[in-house]
Amino acid sequence: MTRTFMPTTRRRLLAGAAVTAATIAAPAIVRAQSGPLKVGVLLPRSGFEAGIGQDCQRGVAIAPAIFKSMGLPELTIMDGDTESSVETARARAAKMISDGAQCLVGAFDSGQTLAIAQVAEQNGVPLIVNIAAAPQLTEQGYKFVFRNFPTAGMILGDAFNNQKEVFGAVGHAPKTVVFMHVNDTFGTAMSKGINALMPKFNMPYTIAEEIAYDPAARDLSVEVAKAKAAAPDGLLVVSRLNDAMLITRELVKQRWTPQTILSMGPGWYEDEYFKTLGKLSDGPLSFVPWYDPNKKLAQQLEAALAKAYPGVNLNTNHVFTFEALLVAADAYKRAGSTDPKKLAEAIRTTNIADNVSIGTGIAFNAKGQNDKVKDGAIQNRGGKPVVIAPQAAANAKPEWPLQPYQDRG
Amino acid sequence: MAALLTRLTDGAPRRAVILLGILFATLVVAPWLVSDYLVTVLILILYLAYCGQAWNIMMGFTGQLSLGHGIYVGLGAYVAAVLFTRYGVGPWFGLLAAMPVAAACGAVIGFLAFRFGVTGVYFAILTIAFAEFARIGFDHLGIVNAAAGLFLPVAQYAHNDLWRLRGSPTMFYYVILAATLCAFILCRLLITSRIGYFWLAIREDEEAARAAGIDTFRYKIYAVTISAAVTSFAGVFYAFFYNNLFPEQVFNISQSIQIILGPVIGGVGTLFGPLLGAFVLTGLAESLNSALTAFGIDLPGAEQVFYGMCLLFVVVALPEGIWPWLARALGVTERVR
Amino acid sequence: MPIDVYLNVAVGGVLTGLVYGLMALGLSVIFGVVRVVNFAHGEMMSIAMYLAVVLFSAFHLDPLIMMVPIAAVLFVFGYALQSGLINPFITRPEHSQFLLLVALAIIIVNVLLIIFGPDARTVQTAYAFDSFQLGPLLVDAAKVYAGAAAIVIAALLFAFFRFTLIGTAIRACADNYTGALVVGLNVNRLYALTFGIGAACVGAAGAMMTLIVDVTPTIGPTYTLLAFVIVITGGLGSMPGALIGGILIGLTEALAGLLFTPSAKSMFAFGILVVVLLFRPQGILGKRPA
User: For residue C274, what is the nearest residue in chain B, using CA coordinates?
Assistant: First the structure.
C-alpha cells in the first residue's frame, strides 16, 4: 500500500486560486445601496427543529402584503436555513452579510441565535431576534442585537401572574402539582427559573414532584405513571409538541385526568395537537407569549394567515416572526436609508403601539430587550386556543376543571 | 530547526514539499484576500481537518475505529469553559487542564476495550455508548448548567486578545491554522518514528505484530490517549469560538460523524486525507447551498439530499478515499520499492 | 409508591420492549448473517412508519393488517439495496460500510423531510386510547397488540430459519462463508434475501410502532442506536435473543425511569451495553465465536 507523505496537490492550489480570484473579482460589498432593504431571515428549516422553523416561515410569507397595506416600505427577504445547527447558523449568517444583507432576523433556537448575534455584532449589522428565551442574548452588551420576545424569567413571571388571575376568575386553585418538563435547553432553563422564582410569587400550589424526561422520549408511560402516583391536583408542564401528545395519550390510557394542566411552553396549543387528539385536546392552559385578539393588526394577521394557510391557527411562531419583520420595516421607514448602522439607531428608537402581541407595544430598552411584551394565558377550546388572561387581551372566560378524558365521546 | 525540517521532509518527493509550501503560504494570506464569510468557511474546514487529523491517529495509523470521538471534543470544551466562566482561567491554561482529562478518558475507554478484547465494530459501538453516556450525563450535570447550556461571556471584538481567545474571526482563523499545521507536523513525526511503525504493524495485522514482540496493548493505549488529547484542543477552540455549549449538540453522535467524514472521504491513514476531505466536504456543502440559492430552489432538505448522494458516490467509487487516487494521478506519491 | 405502580410500569416496559425487540430482530438478522453494520436501520423503520401513515390516511386499514404489505415493500427495498449497493462493501473495512449507510441515512431522512414535511404524523386507530383493566393493572391496548404481533413474527422467523431449506442455507452462510461457497450456495443471492428479510422485519416493526409513537423525519438515529444496544445485549444472530434483549432494555429503562430521573434512563441502556461488550460480547443468547 503506497504511503503518501508530504502531499499537496496542484489541483488544490488551483482551487484555492480560483476561489481567491472569484472573491477579488466580485463587486465589493456595498452596504448602503439603493433599493429595498435586504433582510436575511435565518430559521431552522431542516434538522430536528424543522417543524418550528417552517412554521415561523409562514409568518414571513404573509408579511409583505400586510406591510403594503400599512404603507410600510418593501423589504427584500433572503431566506436562510440554519439546519438546526450552531455551526451552520454562523456560516449562513456570515454568508448573508457577505451577500449584502443589511438586517438579520432569527433564529428561534437560543444557541444558534447567539452564534448569529456574534456575527451580526462583529459586522455592525442589526439582528432582530424573533424567538429565543435565553437571557444571555441581551446581557452581552451587544449594540446590534434586539429582541422582541420575553426572556425565560419574563415568561415565568407573567405566567405566575396570569395563573393567579385565572385562579381568581374561576374561584379554584390546585394545591399540589407535579412538574413535568422536557430535559432540553428550554425545559431545563424553565425548571431552574421556576425553582428560583416561585417562592417570590406566593403561588397557591406547591410542587410535589419534579419529573424530567428525555426530549427524544419514545414513550412517556413511566413518567405519567410516576406523576399519577403522586396524586396531585394539577400538572405543570414544559414540553414540546410530541411530548404534549404523548402525555395526553398516556393520561387517557392510564385513566387519570388532573384538575388542570398548566403548560409554560409550546406544544399544547399547536395545530397538530388539536388535529390528532380531537375532543381530547380541550382544556389545557398554556402560559406563553401570544397575540392580543383585540388588536386590529392581530385580526388582520389572523385573516391573512387563514387565507394563505387554511386550517392553520395563528400562534407564537407566526406572530413574533411577523413582528420582527415589522420592526425592520418600521425602522427602515424612519431611517430612510439601508445603512445598517443607521438602521440599528432607528431600531433602538422603535415605538410601535399598534402591534400584534400582548402588551403595550414594541420598544427596546438600553440592552436591546423589549421589556414591555407580556405573555397571555390561553385555553384549548373546540379545536382552537382562546385567550383567557390578562383581562385586557382576553376574548373568553376560563373553564375549570378539565373534563375527564373518559367522559369525552 | 534545520534538523526538524530535514526529519520532516526526509523521503518525500521534492515537488510535494514545494507545493505544500505554496499551499501553506496561500492559507496564511487568505484572510486578506477573501471575504469574512469565506474566512468563516475556512475556519470550519480547518477545524474539521484538525479533528480529522486527530481521529486519524487512532484509526488511520492504528486501525481502531472510534465513532464516539465527540466525547473528547466535548470534554475539552467543557473543562476549558467551566474554568473560564467560574474561575476566570484563560483558555490556554484551560487547555492544559483539558488535555489530561480527555487523555484519561481515552485511556479508560482504551483500557476497558483492549483488556477485554473488544475490537472492530464492537469497539466502534463501545465508543458510541461512551459518547452517549457522556451526553446524557452532562445533560444532568449542575456544574455545566446541564441541558440549559453553558454560555461564555462575550466581551468584545474591538481588539484581538489572543490570551483569552476573544476577538475577530481572523484571529481564530490563524489559531486554527496554526493548530492544524501542528497536528500535521505531529502526525508526520509520529508516523516516521518507531511508535508510528508499531502502529502500522498493529493496523495491518495485530496478531503478527504481537508475534513479532510488539506490546500491542500498550501501543494501542498510546494511540487512543494521544488522539484524545489532541482532539481536546478542538473542543477548547469550539467553546471559545461559538461561546455556547449544549451537551445535546457537543456530545451528539452527529458531531462524531462530522469528525470522521473528512478523513474517510479524504483517505484514512494518509497524512493529507483529513485536510483534503475537509476541504471537499465543506466546499461541497457551501457550493450546494450557493447553487440552490442561485437557482431559486427553496426546499429545506434538498441540499442535504445532494450532499448525501455525493457522499455515496465517493464512498462507492473511491473506497480508499480521494487522496490516494489524486496522488497517483498527479504523481506525488512516494516511490514504492 | 404502591406496588401496582411498579407492576404497571414493569408490564408496560416489557410490552414496549417486545416491539423494540421486533425492530432489533431485523438488525440481528442483517448484522448476524451479512455482517453489515446497518447504521441506516432506524431510517428504514421510519420509511415503514411513513408508509403506514400514508396507507392509513388513504385506506383506513389497521396497521396490524398493513404490516404485511409494508413488510413486503421493505423486503423489496432491502433486497435491492443489498444486491445493488451494499454487496461490494461486505468485505470492505467497517468505516467504509459505516459511511455508506450514513450517506444513505442522510438521503432517506431528507427525502422524507421534503415529501412529508417536518410535522409529526400519527396513526389514529379506534383503539389508540384503549386500555385493559386487569385488577390493579392498567395495560395499554395498543402495546398489547403490538407485543403479541412481535412474538408471532419472531416465532415465524425462527421457524423459517430453523425448518426451511433457505433458512438453513442462510444460517450456513453466516456460520461459514467459505464453506457455503464450497458447497455451491449462491451466497450473493442469499445475502440479498437475508437483507430483504431483515428489512421486512423492520417494516413490520415500523407499522406497529406507529401505534405507539409519532413519526417525524428525524426519529431514525435514536432507534438505530437502540437496535444496536438490543442486538448486542441479546446476542448477535439469535432471534429469541433480540426479543429478550428488547425486553431487558425496555424493562430496565422503565424501572430506571421510575426509580431515578426519567431523563437519564437511557444511560442505563448504554451502561448495560458497556457491561455486555466487556464481559459477554456474544450477548445473552449468542454463540461464543469458534
Answer: B126
> Across the interface, do B308 and C103 touch by the CB < 8 Å criterion?
yes
The pTM score is: 0.86
| B120 inside 8 A of chain C by CB | yes
Domain that holds residue C73: 3-117+151-279
Q: Kindly report the CATH number that applies to the domain delimited by A37-150+294-374.
A: 3.40.50.2300
Q: Which residue has the cell 420575553?
A: A150
3-state helix, strand, coil in chain C (%, to 5): 75, 5, 20
Please state which of the four CATH numbers 3.40.50.920, 3.20.20.100, 3.40.50.2300, 3.40.50.620 is assigned to the domain occupying A153-290+376-407.
Answer: 3.40.50.2300
Give residue-wise pLDDT tens across range A83-120: 888 989 999 999 999 999 999 998 998 889 999 999 99
- pLDDT at position B162 is 77
- Run of H or E residues at B19: helix B14-33
CA atoms of A145 and A59, how far apart (whole Å): 21
Specify the CATH number of the domain B13-150+157-330: 1.10.3470
What pLDDT, in 10s, does the model give residues B195-238? 888 888 888 888 888 898 888 888 999 999 999 999 999 999 99
- Are A258 and A235 contacting, i.e. CB atoms less than 8 angstroms apart? yes
pLDDT tens, A321-351? 999 999 999 999 999 888 999 999 999 999 9
CB pairs under 8 A between A and C: 104
Query: Cβ of B168: how many Cβ atoms within 10 Å?
Result: 15
Per-residue pLDDT, averaged over C54-59, amounts to 88
ipTM of the complex: 0.86
- Using the beta-carbon criterion (under 8 Å), do B315 and C266 form an inter-chain contact? no
Q: Determine how many CB atoms are found less than 10 A away from the CB of residue B98.
A: 28
* Cβ–Cβ < 8 Å for A109, A82: yes
CB contact under 8 A, A221 and C124: no
